[in-house]
């Protein structure tokens, strides 16, 4: 399906066949209209894919409405929404979600949802003013790679194991710039996510949850990421068997007093698995370089380089689970 010219849409396009490739000619734009109906109005949904396989959405330009929609369902809003889809790709698209400047009224660019979703590819997209959601309600093995996400009012990139048991998602090589909340969040009963070789550059002002990467799932790998200028945590990881290896966390906001924690192992609820490790990271310019607090279980902190931090390594040993191994 070839899309040409500029199309102003007031209703969602439902993709009803498998193995369809949707591309556009140079200069064509899909623009959200000012008089939306149905899921376009409530969810700002341009494309709906449900139970599809092998669909490709490539090289499109999505433009938000000139005025903000009201009453969006923040759990489901997305310009491209995949539910229980297998082997679909959303790649090489441009999303400019104008008209959504309020934290309480925004749309996501892409969402992959449902325990029937697997092996989908969300890659090489350029997103401004919206979030990218690689796993929601059980979606597994999404490949979320080489996207650029700028000025999202909430997180830049998210995965949430709120239902089902999502596994083996890959978040690699993305650039997240100036998110309103966290750069990358992977949270809940989500297993073995690989968060590798991403760059997250923080907002100019502090927020209550100004985290570069929050890896709060189970048995995940956080490796080779560059995180800069997040005022609360550079990297937060749970004590559930996570490996935090070879990352660079820096706080370089001019004359700002040292604040925040470069890397923290911090599981606040649930039974801690233990077995997490913080190995070979570079941390610079925080109040605390590396900390292990709350119910984190057994943690190894080995071979890290902590520079210009008020306290280099801090272990909270007040709870029953704290077994801190530092070499």
Q: What are the main properties of this structure?
A:
12-stranded parallel β-sheet; mainly beta; elongated
Structure, described:
There is one protein chain. The protein starts with a strand and ends with a strand. It has 1 helix and 37 strands. The strands form 3 sheets. Strands 1-4-7-10-13-16-19-22-25-28-31-34-37 form a 13-stranded parallel sheet, with no helix packed on it. Strands 2-5-8-11-14-17-20-23-26-29-32-35 form a 12-stranded parallel sheet, with no helix packed on it. It has a 12-stranded parallel sheet with strand order 3-6-9-12-15-18-21-24-27-30-33-36, with no helix packed on it. Residues 100-105 and 317-327 have low confidence and may be disordered. The chain has one helix at residues 38-43; strands at residues 2-3, 6-9, 13-15, 21-24, 29-32, 47-50, 56-58, 61-63, 78-83, 89-91, 94-96, 108-113, 121-123, 126-128, 131-136, 143-145, 148-150, 157-161, 170-172, 175-177, 184-191, 194-196, 199-201, 211-218, 221-223, 226-228, 233-237, 243-245, 248-250, 261-267, 276-279, 282-284, 288-294, 298-302, 305-307, 311-315, 323-326. With 327 residues, it is mainly beta. Helices cover 2% and strands 46% of the residues.
């Amino acid at each position: 399906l070839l899309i040409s010219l500029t199309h102003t849409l007031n209703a969602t396009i439902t993709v009803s066949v498998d193995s369809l490739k949707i591309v556009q000619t140079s200069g064509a734009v899909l623009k959200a209209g000012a008089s939306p109906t149905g899921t376009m109005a409530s969810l700002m949904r341009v494309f709906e894919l449900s139970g599809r396989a092998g669909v490709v959405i490539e090289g499109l330009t999505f433009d938000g409405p000139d005025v903000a929609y009201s009453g969006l369902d923040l759990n489901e809003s997305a310009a491209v929404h995949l539910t229980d889809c297998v082997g679909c790709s959303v790649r090489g698209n441009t999303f400019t979600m104008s008209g959504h400047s309020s934290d309480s009224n925004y749309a996501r660019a892409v969402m992959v949802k449902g325990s029937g979703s697997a092996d989908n590819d969300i890659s090489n997209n350029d997103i401004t003013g919206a979030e990218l959601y690689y796993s929601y309600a059980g979606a597994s093995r999404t490949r979320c790679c080489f996207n650029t996400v700028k000025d999202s009012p909430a997180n830049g990139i998210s995965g949430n194991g709120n239902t089902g048991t999502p596994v083996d998602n890959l978040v690699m090589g993305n650039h997240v710039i100036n998110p309103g909340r966290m750069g990358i969040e992977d949270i809940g009963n989500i297993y073995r996510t690989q968060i590798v070789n991403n760059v997250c550059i923080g907002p100019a002002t502090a927020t209550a949850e100004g985290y570069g990467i929050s890896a709060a799932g189970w048995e995940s790998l956080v490796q080779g990421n560059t995180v800069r200028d997040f005022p609360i945590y550079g990297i937060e990881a749970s004590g559930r068997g996570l490996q935090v290896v070879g990352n660079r966390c820096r706080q370089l906001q001019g004359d700002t007093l040292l604040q925040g924690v470069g890397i923290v192992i911090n599981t606040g609820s649930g039974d801690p698995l233990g077995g997490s490790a913080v190995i070979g990271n570079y941390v610079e310019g925080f109040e605390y370089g590396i900390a292990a607090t709350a119910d984190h279980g057994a943690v190894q902190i080995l071979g890290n380089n902590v520079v210009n931090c008020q306290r280099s390594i801090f272990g909270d040993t007040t709870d029953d689970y704290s077994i801190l191994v530092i070499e």
